Amino acid sequence: MLTLKNVNKAFGTNEVLKDISLSINDGEIVSILGSSGSGKTTLLNCLLGLVELNSGVIELDGKDITQLPIEKRGLNIVFQDYALFPHLSAGRNIVYGWRNNPSVSTQEEVDALIDLLDLREHLDKEIHELSGGQKQRVALARTLTLKPKVLLLDEPLSALDGVIKESIKDTIKEISEKYNLTTIIVTHDPEEALTLSDKVLILDGGSIAQYGTPQEIIQHPANSFVESFILRQLHVKRDNILKLFGDQHV
Which domains are seen in the chain, by residue range? Predict the structure, then answer.
């Protein structure tokens, strides 16, 4: 379980995160949702260890990781731009980190990841030859070979559309279920968050506006901000939201 207790972060006089407390169970997919400037990226960076807290505690499986360096936290991230090495093939990108830590995963486990992500036929391709969805899967494979306890995804679907976006959504769900992998996603898109996640954290001005299941948020918005934010972004009337998501999480 990943737990945040009274997390606060300010840059100078600008309070970006205000008293954030929540728990995420093993294997859950949680989306951090909010408009620009709501604090979602800062929260992701605090979890990863790129940004130091002003106060508060981050625990993973009961262990305080607040002061641990990035490489010892048990969290890993796939960045929005994938951060792949352009001079390496897809296959060499996948095994780049694993080659320095071969005891983390076996060759059989790496091969299983490659097959799960449907990358076998693309291993010898250069990065510029890959589609957006293929690049996303390569980045996922590279991260998963290191067996993180928590997977962080920064806007994983923002550069994708149509069938490719739906395919990556299905892949993220399959990975989370297969490996019981806690997955945290930063997104600005309510539809993405509500259809992909077990729980959604909605931030407003650095504070928690609501944290709950998609069903709870849709049926019982905590306040007018949550309701208007969801409606505004989805461009639908409230009466139609349950129909829109009725065959998914709600």
Answer: 2-74+149-245 (3.40.50.300), 83-147 (no CATH)
